[in-house]
Amino acid sequence: LFNMFFGGGYTNGSRVYMRRGDRYEASAARTHQRTHNQENQTEQSSMSVLVQLMPLLLILMLSLATSLLSSDPVYSLSANNKYTDHRLTSRLHVSYYVKPGFVKEYQGSIRRLESQVEEDYITALRNGCYKERNHKENMLWRARSFGDAQMFRRAQEMQTPSCDTLQSVYG
């Protein structure tokens, strides 16, 4: 079975023996045929390995091509080495950062870009609010479970700045 799945091919195991004097020997024609079959199997095995590796090579080449063709985002919600120029959106006054030379190089719609910035900002606030509320509720639950009044008080007093900011955006 191992040979059948890993390049050895399938053989039925029958051999032709001829009697020569007091002993039996494998037929020369069968030995020649077996040698010829092994050479064909080796060629087929090499070709099948190449065919089996082709999808993997194709995926590797595609991922390499996409990584070479991808570009940096136009903006960032936080300042870093690449994004140093501070800007504000016109509607919600959300801070965002762009690369130096943004005004000269950017060819798209500023209004559409600012809309995307605001959507990303609100999404980040929602995620932060979810985490803050979840943490607060877990602390309240633990405090109730253990009967810890001090932990319960701290949990009730815990601030949720992302939720507060999100509320002010919608309110």
From TrEMBL:
Pfam families: DUF1977. Signal peptide: none annotated. It is found in: Membrane. InterPro entries: DnaJ_subfamily_B/C, DUF1977_DnaJ-like. This is DnaJ homolog subfamily B member 12-like. It comes from Hirondellea gigas. It is a single-pass membrane protein. GO terms for molecular function: Hsp70 protein binding. GO terms for biological process: cellular response to misfolded protein.
